[in-house]
Amino acid sequence: MKARLPKGSGSGAGNLQQLAMKAQKMQKEMDTLNSELDEKEYVATSAGGAVKVTITGKPEVKNIEIDPQVLDKDDIEMLSDLLIVALNEAIHVASAERSEKMDTLSSGINVPGLF
Q1: Long-range contacts for 6-11 (Cβ within 8 Å, ≥24 apart)?
Q2: What's phi and psi for 14, nearest 5 deg?
Q3: Pairing state of beta strands 61-66 and 41-46?
Q4: Assign residue 48 a region: left if phi > 0, alpha if psi is -120 to 50, beta otherwise?
Q5: Helices 76-106 and 12-39 meet at what angle, rounded to 10?
Q6: N or C: which end of the chain has fewer CB within 10 A?
């Protein structure tokens, strides 16, 4: 017995073409969103604001501000730790926003090679 499509389901080729068009539109929207997020700036701090890091969504470090009060030439390791904490937080925030916006745009659909 031959399988039949329910009435009103349209031809398979038409549905496939419509799906391809939707995928192309989604890809364009994702490309635009990626460009916007790449240029967006994210700021994170550590040590109660003593170290402030600004990154872009690529992520690339754009600026680092250090309160002179936390500078201790005898404790460079602490300053290094504060920078690592602030940088990692900024990267985490940028990554989380990108993931959230892409999930929203794709309605949670994960199509290999589309992102």
Answers
A1: none
A2: -65, -40
A3: unpaired
A4: left
A5: 150
A6: N
